[in-house]
Specification:
This protein has 331 residues and is an alpha/beta fold. The chain has 11 helices and 14 strands.
Length: 331
């Protein structure tokens, strides 16, 4: 059965990728986007679909953009009316920005998530998918799995942990079928505004600038291609019997920053781009040393697993950035 979907942060990297997939698979009766336009914008949404702006109510095959902020409870309620599924991507994203402004991080990621959950409860939304992160786990011995006691080391990790806590409470107290997905480091086409290590390194390399590595580059992350992540989001929104659960959504592969730089450099070289210069600086405050996930629970309960190899995903990602530069759109 086709559902009515609300995607918060729907003009961003993850949101536009989800909307593109929902449209191509024809599994959405309607799609509503709530976005403050702080990162992604109308042009980004327009790249994947046509849309109308303003709240008019769900219509068959329509995409509707509501410009607003999740910190406003009334806006959240307005947007949840008539929806079957909420996919909550909107957030203050990343460790460095949370270190710079922990209050803003809390207001967006804790109060904003609370507002969306409360609106979903009031409006009778049946499924709520929350975009979390590996950051709540903190500095632990990987692989990270769902039963590890969380010890966040950054305000960002703490705010995402609070969001997971509220999801659990709203499932057990009010019956809202929440599913929290702890994403690995996402990369892929569409990430032009993203300040992740992959997007940042590719932009700098294509501009002929040195790549800055914090510390010695031995820190590890779990890099997941956007198509694999979106498959997991759709399964989390539609699979029965997973309400109240938390899932690690990553590749179960540990990759050092030095290794990801090598993959990027090799991919660029194969496309005629010179090897970038490497500059090493001090380790960054709030970063954990090792981070990769055990995704066995997602495979068992969601029927999900990764399909994309890092090298193949990187080819598609570099091509995307090169095309954006060719068109003069690499803002």
């Amino acid at each position: 059965m086709a559902l009515n979907w609300l995607v918060t942060g729907g003009c961003g990297f993850l949101g536009t990728a989800l909307i593109k997939q929902l449209r191509s698979a024809e599994i959405a009766a309607s799609i509503r986007v709530l976005d403050s336009l702080a990162v992604g914008g109308r042009d980004d949404l327009g790249m994947v679909c046509s849309f109308r702006e303003g709240h008019k109510g769900p219509e068959d095959a329509a995409v509707e953009l509501v410009v607003g902020d999740i910190r406003d409870p009334n806006t959240c309620v307005l947007c949840c009316r008539g929806m079957d599924v909420v996919v909550h991507f909107a957030a203050n994203t990343g460790v460095p920005v949370s270190i710079d402004n922990p209050r803003l991080d809390m207001e967006c990621n804790v109060a904003g998530t609370f507002n969306m959950l409360e609106a979903a409860r009031e409006c009778g939304v049946s499924r709520f998918v929350f975009a979390s992160s590996g950051a709540p786990a903190g500095e632990v011995e990987p692989p990270i799995h769902e039963e590890l006691p969380p010890h966040p080391v950054s305000p960002y990790g703490a705010s995402k942990l609070a969001g997971e806590g509220y999801c659990s409470a709203y499932y057990r107290s009010f019956g809202v079928e929440t599913v929290a997905l702890r994403f690995g480091n996402v990369y892929g086409p569409g990430s032009v505004h993203k300040n992740s290590v992959v997007a940042r390194f590719i932009r700098k390399a294509l501009a002929g600038e040195p790549l800055e590595i914090y510390g010695d580059g031995s820190q590890t992350r779990d890099f997941i291609y956007i198509d694999d992540l979106i498959d997991a989001v759709i399964l989390a929104a539609t699979r029965q019997g997973v309400g109240g659960e938390v899932f690690q959504i990553a590749t179960s592969c540990e990759t050092t920053v030095n290794e990801i730089v090598e993959v990027i450099a090799t991919t660029l070289e194969s496309m005629g781009i010179a090897q970038p210069e490497i500059v090493r600086t001090e380790p960054r405050l709030g970063d954990v040393k090792r981070n990769f996930s055990d995704t066995a629970k997602a495979k068992a309960m969601l029927g999900w697993e990764c399909r994309w190899r890092l090298e193949d995903g990187m080819v598609e990602t570099v091509r995307y950035f090169m095309e954006k530069i060719r068109r003069g759109c690499s803002s």
